[in-house]
Predict the structure.
Amino acid sequence: MVAATANTFWRDHGDFLLILISAIGEAVFLGFMAKQKVWRKFPIFFIYILWAFLGDCAALYLQGRLTDREYYKFYAIQSMIDAAIQFAVLVELAWSVLRPVRSSLPRKSILILALLIVLAGLAIWPLAGRTTPAGYTGIAATTFHLEQTIGVLRIVCFLIMAGFSQLLSIGWRDRELQIVTGLGFYSIASLMITLGHSQQTGDADTYHWLDQLSSACYFGTLSYWVMSFATKEQERKEFSPQMQNLLLQLGGGARAGRIALTDLPSERSRNKD
């Protein structure tokens, strides 16, 4: 009897409680970041968490006040803005990792970095589309497709930073790796849940439980970030000699090319000669 009552209560109020818990976790994390003035180093990541907090607060308020169709429109718009901010977060993290040699790189290196991430996203896009459930059409299919693409892109960025951490001279006490690890964990969990959805055969309750599990994993990510940011960040190390030489050669080559083009005599000067 008690178990049945608990199941009924959770089925009716579980979504609300999970969003409330996530909003509380985001508020606590925002407090940690504000205390440590994280917005100075990672302004876009700070905006991302603030946006997630405001979105959860809006969702708590709108639940029960909108029809299912209206609420999904709200969710779709929120997801698209969220994806754009997450892309900017990945660019910010990658640019922060290059901090030791940024002064030696060309001025437009951050644009090149953003372009590389865009190209990676475009390569992932057709693959991510294969996970879209058959019943999804229109805006629902596009939103799901976009979320999966950003999720896989987060995993790729996590694997690159973690796999090349020695060359990049970053460790688990560096904020860049802590942030991308949280993003990677949540993305891997979400991808596994999506694969679980694809294996289901119409069990609506199980489908909903898996969605709630995704929310629980997100709260786990927030908890990891809170614990990570509660510890003092280690002083950033210089790049390994191999990586430093490689980046300086790339930066120096691009700069030398610009200087050479600038030093070329103009067409008018050649005509005078």
